[in-house]
Structure formats: structure tokens, C-alpha cells
Design brief:
Helix content is 40%, strand content 18%. The protein has helices spanning 36-42, 68-82, 94-105, 122-125, 128-143, 166-175, 178-190, 217-226, 242-245, 247-260, and strands at residues 2-6, 9-16, 21-25, 47-52, 87-92, 110-116, 204-209, 231-235. Helix 5 packs antiparallel against helix 7 (178-190). The model has no long low-confidence stretch (mean pLDDT 96).
């Protein structure tokens, strides 16, 4: 584990392998451990970096008023700390929104984008009534006593959590901080990155679960229409957590894309 200090926050990340750098940004209610199968499989060919964003995993607590731009600034500091030049940067779900904000602010650090089961923010990708429903659901989830808090969002999996990663998911769930998740979901509800999409000039992979109920495939198609020359790969019969539901197919798609754009 390596720690870089950004704006008074300790930001932790793991680094494994040698070769071109691939940075992985996790979703809300998880941490860098969600990328375990990809870190292990891709380290034979790439320097794979999985961060724990501020407020998650082994990283420090969020300061008051932390915004999407602050997450992007912290991720930029990780890329700079790795010091291998522009990175191929992947983000799943909320992590994809953070990665888009990174590209907005520091395109010099991004060699290519891998946008996975994600959004241009909820405001940017979902109808207002769906955003309102999710905000209310988050409010109810976060209102329970801390001992009863369950960070599992509805619709994450096509057919329930993958048994192979049950222990990993349980461990990550225990470590989720309600106050961090409240910030993530609040920022996601207000985020709108749609103006950025047509201005993306780096190679972009859209990697989606066919049965994703949280970020449905029509969002991927909207991304494909908006981002010049974006490539869409759909993984059959899996949902929002496609990297854990179909790790071999997912990792193969990432490897093929990253090889083509080193």
C-alpha cells in the first residue's frame, strides 16, 4: 500500500505489476478491493493501480465540503505519484463519474478512458423522477442506526452477489462509512458531465453488463452517441458489477483495449 497526501487527506492505493499504467476507480459503497480479480490478472502486463478514494477503505476521512472536483484532484495526485506518465483510467459506476471529472480537469494525465456501468452523474444520465427516487432511497438507507446500516444498493447484480466473492463483498461492506456514502450519493445525484462527453478526444471503452439495472444499457448507447469514436463492449447476462459477475470476460475486454492503446 502507498499513501499520498492531497489537500490534507491521506489517499491510499495499491500498485502491482510492471508495464503501462492502468488506474482503477471503484464505485460507491466499496473500495479498491472490488478490483481484486483485475489487479491479479492484469499485473502480468500492466502496472495496475487501485485506489481507495478519500473516505473509503484505507484512505482518510472526507473533509467538510468535499466535492466531485476534489475527488478528481485526489485521483490526479495518485496518477502523478505513480509517475509513469498518462494513465489508462477506468471507473465503475460512481467511479466513472469521478474519472470523467478527472479528464475534465487534467486531460494531460489520461491516455485512455474505460467507462464501466457508469453515468454522466445521475442528473446527467437519469430522468428526474428516477433521480428523486434514488435520493429518497439513499435517505432511508442512511437514516437507520449505524449498527443496522447496509451499504448494498438495489439492482447491483443480475442474479445476486457472486458466490466466489462473497467474503470480499462482506468485508468491504463492513468497512463502508455511512458519512462517506452520503457524500458520494449526494454528489452523484447532482452531477452532470454530459457537456464533457463530445469533447473527449482519447480512446474510450464503454464496458457494460447487458442486464445492468442501475445504469441500463441505454445509458451506454447515449455515451456511445456522444463520445467520438467510443467503443462499446457488452458483457452478456451480467449486471452493474460486471467486473465481479463475469471477471474473465471483463478482464479480457480490458486487456484487449489497453493493449491497443498503450
Amino acid at each position: 500500500m502507498t499513501v499520498v497526501r492531497v489537500g490534507g487527506v491521506d489517499v491510499a492505493y495499491t500498485r502491482k505489476g510492471r508495464g503501462p499504467v492502468l488506474v482503477l476507480a471503484h464505485g460507491a459503497g466499496s473500495d479498491g478491493r472490488m478490483w481484486q480479480p483485475q489487479v491479479e490478472a492484469l499485473a502480468d502486463e500492466f502496472t495496475v493501480v487501485a485506489w481507495d478514494e478519500p473516505g473509503a477503505g484505507r484512505s482518510g476521512a472526507l473533509p467538510p465540503g468535499f466535492g466531485v472536483e476534489d475527488y478528481a484532484r485526489a485521483l490526479a495526485a495518485v496518477v502523478e505519484d505513480v509517475d509513469l506518465g498518462p494513465a489508462q483510467v477506468a471507473g465503475l459506476s460512481w467511479g466513472g463519474t469521478v474519472v470523467l471529472e478527472l479528464y475534465r480537469r487534467r486531460p494531460d494525465l489520461v491516455r485512455s478512458l474505460l467507462l464501466v456501468d457508469t453515468y454522466a452523474g445521475w442528473k446527467g444520465s437519469l430522468p428526474p423522477e428516477e433521480v428523486a427516487e434514488r435520493v429518497e432511497g439513499a435517505r432511508r438507507m442512511l437514516a437507520v442506526p449505524r449498527g443496522e446500516f447496509d451499504p448494498t444498493l438495489p439492482g447491483l447484480y443480475a442474479d445476486g452477489p457472486p458466490e466466489l466473492f462473497a467474503e470480499l463483498l462482506e468485508a468491504m461492506g463492513r468497512d463502508v462509512r455511512p458519512e462517506s456514502m452520503a457524500v458520494q450519493l449526494s454528489l452523484m445525484a447532482e452531477a452532470d458531465e454530459t457537456d464533457l462527453l463530445p469533447r473527449i478526444t482519447v480512446p474510450t471503452l464503454l464496458l457494460w453488463g447487458e442486464l445492468d439495472a442501475r445504469s441500463p444499457l441505454d445509458i451506454a448507447l447515449a455515451f456511445q452517441d456522444a463520445i467520438p469514436h467510443a467503443e462499446l463492449v457488452v458483457i452478456p447476462e451480467v449486471g452493474h458489477m460486471s467486473n465481479l459477475e463475469a471477471p474473465e470476460a471483463f478482464t479480457a475486454a480490458v486487456r484487449t483495449f489497453c493493449r491497443a492503446h498503450v
